[in-house]
Amino acid sequence: MAEYQLYCFAQSGNAYKTALMLELCGAAWEPVFVDFFNGETPTPHYRSQVNEMGEVPVLLHGGKKLSQTGVILTYLAGKLGRFASAGEDPGREVLRWILFDNHKFTSYLATYRFLHAFAKTGDPAVMEFLRGRIRGALGIVAKHLEDQPFIVGDKPTIADLSLCGYLFFPPEEFGFDIGAEHPPIGAWLGRIKALPGWVHPYELMPGHPLPTK
Ligand SMILES: N[C@@H](CCC(=O)N[C@@H](CS)C(=O)NCC(=O)O)C(=O)O
User: Fold this and answer.
1) Would you tell me how many other CB atoms lie within 10 Å of the CB of residue 183?
2) pTM of this prediction exceeds 0.90
3) Is 102 in the pocket of ligand 1 (CB under 6 A)?
4) Over the stretch 5-28, which tens digit does the pLDDT of each residue have?
5) How many Å apart are CA 152 and CA 91, to the nearest integer?
6) 69 lines ligand 1 (CB under 6 A)
7) Ligand 1 in contact with 68 (CB < 6 A)?
8) Cβ neighbours, 10 Å, residue 180
């Protein structure tokens, strides 16, 4: 058994944040496939044995079980000694962007993509509302990246890994091209992609492509 086990599936940008961290750090890890699209996460078994919050990802390490990507990324930065921030003030900045990501960035992007690409049931008014929220959040991150290479300082941190979680999925899955619409974000994604060991989510985690019905 590998040192780290990650409950994940290929289409999860949340899981990708943590899988990418493990991969970039060269950690010994293995995926545990979660059959999200066949309803595994709401099952009593998943909630009682894996994660009471019914979410992916979950990390197992040394007898510990961790969930919430912000917690997992912080834990891994400590254990693996990479992508942390140097100092108290930058550390707070990293946390500030991870919280922003979880509330305003990943949450709207993931919901919009799920409805657009997988559920294919998005009510037009709901989609329009989410699109507006996404436009606002992308604009904030793009402006922030106009004059700095990474989210906090000049080196990548777990804040970058958190915010980029959904952004490498194909534009068709969103119905718009994030990097093209927001060039500073496109350039930043290029810098993340250039990190040694970078792997696309669909190659890093199990479950892609989805079986055709
Ligand atoms: N804030 C959580 C979000 C995790 C999350 O929403 N994961 C999705 C898969 S990408 C999930 O498991 N959703 C199940 C649900 O919302 O019921 C984190 O950062 O880990």
Assistant:
1) 12
2) yes
3) yes
4) 999 999 999 999 999 999 999 999
5) 9
6) yes
7) yes
8) 10
